[in-house]
Amino acid sequence: MLNDRASLLAHLSTRRSGKPRDLVAPGPSLAQMTEMVRIAARSPDHGKLAPWRFVIVPDARRAALAGLLVDAYRAEKPDAGRLELESMQQFARQAPALIVVLSSPKAAKIPVWEQELSVGAATMNLLHAAHAMGFAAGWLTGWPAYSDAVRDAFGTADECIAGFVFIGTPGRDLEERPRPEIDAILSVWDGAGD
Fold it and tell me: What DSSP line would sit under 64-84, residue for residue?
C-alpha cells in the first residue's frame, strides 16, 4: 500500500497543463471522458448540490463550435479583424477532445462562492483524471468563457462557463513552469494577531 501511495504522489507531482494547441491524437474515447467526469464529480461539494455540469463537444461538432464562436465574436465586436476571427476558429479546433465545464449554482443555503469553489475542484479533478489516463489537458477561459452567446449554447443565463478543458496527447514535451517557493505560500499560524 505504501508503494501505491508513493506512486500516486509521484504521479500527482508530475501533472502539468498541456497547451491545447500542442495536444494531438490520440485523444480520449467517449467512455474515457465519461470516466473522467465521473472522477471529477467526486469533488468536495458542500450540501451535495453538484453545482457543475460537463458538456462534451464531439469532434464532429467542432466546426459548428467554430462557427458559433466566430458569429458571437462578430456580433459583439463588429469591427473584428481577420486575425481575431481566425483565433476563434483555432480556439474551437484545438486538441482532439473538449469538455466544457459549467458552473451551475443551485438555490440553497450554501453560498454561491462555496459552490464556485466546488466547480474549480471538479475541473481540477477532471485534469487529474486525464493525467492519470495518460493524457494531457489544458484548462482555458478567454473571451469565449465570458460570452453570453457562447454560454447560452451550452447552458442557461444562471450558469457560467468555468472553462474549456482540451484533452489529448502531448505533441511536444510539456514545459515545466516556475512554481512558487513553498515558504512563500505556506506558513504555520502562531495564534498572534489578537
Answer: HHHHHHHHHHHHH-TT--HHH
